[in-house]
């Protein structure tokens, strides 16, 4: 891992602010970093790894990739990447495909639920009290609209969320980081380039919402910032 510079510098500053604002990391924490193999989770791992060189808080990292049993080269490629950079890691195998099923038969909810369960079980097994997920600012914005449009509720992704009476704490250190910065950083970082695409990615609700936001952005360039701020500016007296 290299010294923080360029796009990583700006991402690291925003990660540091999110960590401070939400008290995400404490001295002595062992943090499980969920690494799917995409640019977001690899950026999160890289920034958290590099920040250990200069932040006063001491913490350890465990990179975990959940192998869902799909035909994919990610487990092998990620293992080589972790070894090359001296990162402690685990590859956990979870096959959710039943006999005769293909990836197209698996819903986004079922895939996500099984992956999350495997992460929590791995965190407990290796003594990790924090689980770091690679959701960024645009993910939070899209989730806010998805919950409104498709679930009829006003909710979003919390940057820090305690589960099971505090036994597991989910943290999202990229909460203040726009995807455009991550894309820029991924182009210069030493990330594995192989990509296993989800068969539902083109038709997913998240993709649809992302396109709506892109269209609205042509009318109002501040649309993303406004949606993000709205989650902190709830006027309860104007709600039913």
Query: Count of DSSP helices?
Result: 8
Domains (count): 1
How large is the share of residues in beta strands?
A: 5-15%
E-strand count: 6
Which CATH architecture would you pick?
3-Layer(aba) Sandwich
Average pLDDT, to the nearest integer? 89
Q: What integer value in Å does the Rg equal?
A: 18 Å
| Unreliable segments of 5+ consecutive residues | none
Q: What is the 3D form?
A: globular
The arrangement of helices and strands along the chain is: HEHEHEHEHEEHHH
Structural class by helix and strand composition: alpha/beta
Q: Can you walk through the features of this model?
A:
By secondary structure, the protein is α/β, with parallel strands linked by helices. It has one domain (7-238): 3-Layer(aba) Sandwich (Rossmann fold), CATH 3.40.50. The chain contains 8 helices and 6 strands. It has helices at 7-21, 39-51, 74-84, 108-125, 137-151, 179-188, 205-219, 223-230, and strands at 30-34, 60-67, 89-93, 130-132, 160-163, 168-171. Helix 1 (7-21) packs across helix 2 (39-51), helix 1 (7-21) packs across helix 6 (179-188) and helix 5 packs across helix 8.
């Amino acid at each position: 891992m290299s010294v923080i510079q360029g796009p990583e510098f700006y991402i690291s500053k925003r990660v540091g602010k999110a960590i401070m604002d939400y008290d995400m990391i404490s001295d002595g924490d062992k943090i499980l970093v969920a690494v799917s193999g995409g640019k977001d989770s690899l950026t999160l791992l890289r920034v958290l790894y590099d920040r250990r060189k200069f932040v006063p808080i001491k913490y350890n990292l465990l990179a975990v990739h959940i192998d869902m049993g799909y035909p994919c080269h990610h487990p092998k490629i990620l293992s080589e990447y972790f070894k090359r950079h001296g990162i402690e890691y685990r590859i956990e195998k979870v096959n959710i495909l039943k006999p005769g099923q293909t990836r197209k038969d698996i819903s986004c909810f079922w895939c996500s639920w099984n992956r999350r369960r495997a992460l929590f079980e791995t965190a407990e097994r290796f003594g990790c009290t924090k689980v770091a997920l690679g959701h960024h600012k645009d993910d939070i914005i899209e989730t806010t609209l998805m919950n409104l449009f498709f679930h009829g509720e006003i909710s979003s992704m919390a940057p820090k969320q305690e589960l099971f009476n505090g036994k597991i704490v989910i943290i999202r250190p990229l909460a203040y980081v726009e995807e455009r910065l991550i894309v820029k950083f991924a182009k210069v970082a030493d990330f594995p380039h192989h990509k296993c695409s989800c068969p539902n990615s083109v038709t997913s609700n998240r993709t649809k919402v992302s396109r709506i936001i892109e269209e609205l952005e042509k009318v109002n360039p501040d649309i993303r910032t406004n949606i993000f701020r709205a989650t902190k500016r709830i006027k309860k007296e104007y709600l039913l």
